[in-house]
Amino acid sequence: EVQLVQSGPEVKKPGESLRISCKASGYTFTNYWIRWVRQMPGKGLEWMGIIYPADSDTKYSPSFQGQVTISADKSIDTAYLQWTNLTASDTAMYFCARDERTWGQGTLVTVSS
Amino acid sequence: DIVMTQFPDSLAVSLGERATIRCRSSQSLLHSSNNKNYLAWYQQKPGQPPKLLIYWASTRESGVPDRFSGSVSGTDFTLTISSLQAEDVAVYYCQQYYGIPRWTFGQGTKVEIK
Predict the structure, then answer these.
(1) What is the DSSP letter of A9?
(2) Cα A87 to the chain's mean position, in Å?
(3) B50 touches B106 (CB < 8 A)
(4) How many C-beta atoms lie closer than 10 Å to residue A37's C-beta?
């Protein structure tokens, strides 16, 4: 079964750093792009960026360029989304997705002092 | 970038009645290589990831009830729920995947029971 399993909810303070993960199983990780999508509370879906795990080719939405880092470790079939300086506006649910039909369950990130 | 404009923002429909959601793209999503429109429709319920309903603008995903259908006319796309059921209460999104690898979503339409 093709599956993406994301890491658990996080509660952080402003200024802290964070890395969340998305572990793939049931397919060849290096053959498919992995996307990250943000959903702020009560809002819609926003495409953040994408990575090709085979060579770590990464592309970002202009809205997120410089704000987050997307990476992947093909030795453990896992993609990551990382922040170095969280702010309250990063509070959101974050989804990884392989394609239109394969999504992770989401990771809720809460940033609050 | 391709902009997706979805409407209405919300919709209240009686059980058993038809619900219609529309989405317009800022450019054609029809790829000449395969004559397919790169447009998907999703259903999202609270606390869950989006669930794929329709792809290629009108192809129903496996397991999706046939009361859900998609159609296209140029750059105008429509999702129709022919007979609304209680379990269809959700937010629905259109999404273009023509601009691969970039995705763009519509703003979402909240469907409720009248």
Answers:
(1) -
(2) 17
(3) no
(4) 25
CA distance A54 to A76: 12
Distances (CA, A) of A87 to A81, A84, A90, B53: 15, 10, 6, 34
Distance CA A61, CA A47 (A): 7
Contact state of B107 with A59 under an 8 Å Cβ cutoff: no
Chain A residues whose CB is inside 8 A of the B103 CB are 35, 37, 47
Burial class (CB in 10 A: 0-12, 13-18, 19+), B42: buried
Residue B100 has pLDDT above 90, yes or no: no
From the list B50, B52, B55, which residue is nearest A45 (CB)? B50
Interface size A-B, in CB pairs within 8 Å, comes to 44
Q: What is the pLDDT of residues B41-66, one digit of tens each?
A: 999 999 999 999 999 999 999 999 99
CB distance B42 to B23 below 8 Å? no
Tokens 């999504």 map to which residue? Answer: A103
